[in-house]
Structures are given as C-alpha cells and as structure tokens.
Amino acid sequence: MSWMEEKRFEWVPLNVSMLKNLTEGHTIIVITDDEREWFGSYMLADINKLSNNRPLLSFVSLKSIYPNLNNLKTKEDIELLENMLYQTFLNGFTYFYIGKNNNIKMQIAKRRDDSFIWVMDEHLQNSFYLSSNDENLDIKLIQLYKLLDKSINALLFAEVDFDQE
C-alpha cells in the first residue's frame, strides 16, 4: 500500500469523520455506481462476518432499502427518499459513496456534508480521489476497505481515541 502513503492526509480526516458518525449511532448507507456494485456487495458481505469478533455494525446498501434507486430522476425524488431515510434512521445516517460523479446516486451523497465519498476521476472537496483508469483500481478499493476495517477495529477496541486530535 505504498500508494496510500502520499494520500494519507486526504484519507485521515475523511475516515475520522465517518468513524465519528458510526460511533454516534449513524447507519452507514452504501451507494455505488453500477461499475462498483461488486465492491459494495463485497464490503457489505465482509463488514459483519462473525469471524470479525466484534459487534455487528450498521452498514446497509441503499439499493436494498430502496430497490427503485435507479428510477430516481429529480431533486424532488431524492428529497422523498431522504425523508424516508430520516424517518427510518432516527439516530442519523451517513452516505458512503463509491463511484463516478456522473450519476444521480452521487447527487444523493453530495447533498450531505458528512458523506464518505470515494470518487473516480474528479477531485471534489471532502472526498477521496481515485482514477477509474488505474489498472490496480480494484486492488486499491479492497485495500482501502481493509484499511477502513482496521480503523473500525482500532476504534472499537480502544486502540485510538478521537480526543487525541
């Protein structure tokens, strides 16, 4: 993961923000573009494996909550969806988006300042940049997930503390 060394200053604040939301009881709502759907499935299948020996975490797929996700077209459609999410997740929720910036799913994630976004091919404020043309992109996505998973463990097992900032 030597490639991550130069990106650590970009990664850490985003990761810390998402982890704080998780500890405050937010549900993490995973959204992917179509090309990264495999990654969302992989992550959701792995995050709560019983072999992780930790409490189960509230990570869910937006597509599983709202199967008509691909039919959203307008700002009003997104607002109706968000109203449902606010009623469903009373402790709050954080979007975790993985994909390109060119679809309605990204527009959902961008509506909230605390979204955890891994965006392809475009540098956006408060997001982690990746190139969709990188021949190692799939490997990097899995490495980032493993880093996130280790961060969650470190937090849950009191190996890190946010008050040290």
Task: Give a written overview of the molecule.
By secondary structure, the protein is of the alpha/beta class. It has one domain (2-155): 3-Layer(aba) Sandwich (Rossmann fold). Helices cover 46% and strands 15% of the residues. The chain has helices at 2-5, 8-23, 37-47, 62-65, 75-88, 104-110, 137-156, and strands at residues 27-32, 59-61, 93-100, 116-120, 128-130. The longest helix has 20 residues, at 137-156. The protein starts with a helix and ends in a 9-residue tail after the last helix. The mean pLDDT is 92.
The CATH topology assignment is Rossmann fold
Our measurement of the CA-to-CA distance between the termini, rounded to an integer number of angstroms, reads 24 Å
Biggest pleated sheet: 5 strands, parallel
CATH class type: Alpha Beta
How many domain modules?
1
Classify the helix fraction into a percent range. 40-55%
CATH superfamily: DNA replication regulator HobA
Radius of gyration: 15 Å
**Uncertain segments of ≥5 residues (pLDDT<50)?**
none
Please, what is the average pLDDT?
92
Q: Would you tell me the structural class of the helices and strands? A: alpha/beta
* The CATH architecture: 3-Layer(aba) Sandwich
